[in-house]
Amino acid sequence: MTLSFEDFEPGHFGTFGPRHVTREEIIAFAAEFDPQPMHLDEEAAKHSMLRGLSASGWHLCSLMMRMICDGFLLRSTSLGGPGIDELKWLAPLRPGDDITLDVHVLETRVSRNRPELGIVTLRVEIHNASGQKLLEGRWPAMFRRRDAAPAA
Fold first, then answer.
1. 123 with 138: CB under 8 angstroms?
2. Alpha helices in 1-152 (DSSP H)
3. What is the spatial distance between Cα 72 and Cα 30, in angstroms, rounded to a whole number?
4. CB–CB of 66/94 below 8 Å?
5. Residue 83 and residue 77: Cα distance in Å, rounded?
6. Distance separating alpha carbons of residues 119 and 140, to the nearest angstrom
7. What is the Cα–Cα distance from 152 to 4, expressed in whole angstroms?
8. Residues 6 or more apart whose Cβ sits within 8 Å of residue 52
9. Residue 47 forms beta bridges with which residues?
10. Around Cβ 36, how many Cβ atoms within 10 Å?
């Protein structure tokens, strides 16, 4: 079933995961995209404010996007989004963590300028296996309405 704007009702939308995160992928991501010592070197990381090797916040965001895509976005009428309203990294993602994504719909509305699409405001949270919240974010996402004509 393809999810359309009408399928997003305010409240808890879904829980996705868990996704296991390895030391090797943390270091590989950091080496490529965020080569700060606390993401690359265990000894240097011990002396950082994170007190141990941890993933880049951008790595956590990339994992979140993958979990969103696998969880529901790739089977939806998603048209993208205009940006992110809020994103907070609350605790470090550590090697060996299993993360879970919770998605909540805060509100929905039909676009005033483009009535063929609706705007869904999402709130997301990522927790590790012990329940600690690592990330929270909020942003509007655009979805084609069910009765709209298919995209050309």
1. yes
2. 23-33, 37-40, 42-46, 57-71
3. 27
4. no
5. 18
6. 6
7. 17
8. 42, 45, 46, 92, 94
9. none
10. 13
Q: Within 10 A of 88 (CB to CB), how many other CB atoms are there?
A: 12
What does the pLDDT read at residue 150?
Answer: 58
Query: Cα 65 from chain centroid?
Result: 4
What confidence tens digit (pLDDT) does each residue in 1-53 have? 899 999 999 999 999 999 999 999 999 999 999 999 999 999 999 999 889 99
With a threshold of 0.90, does the pTM exceed it? yes
Can you tell me whether residue 150 is helix, strand or coil?
Answer: coil
Q: Which fold has domain 5-21+57-144?
A: Thiol Ester Dehydrase; Chain A (3.10.129)
Q: How many residues are recorded in the chain? A: 152
Q: Can you say whether residue 108 is alpha, beta or left, with left for phi > 0 and alpha for psi between -120 and 50 degrees?
A: beta
Classify burial at 82, counting beta carbons within 10 Å of its beta carbon; exposed 0-12, middle 13-18, buried 19 or more: exposed
- Tokens matching residue 129: 């296996």
User: Hey, what amino acid is at 25?
Assistant: E
The tokens for 104 are 């909540």
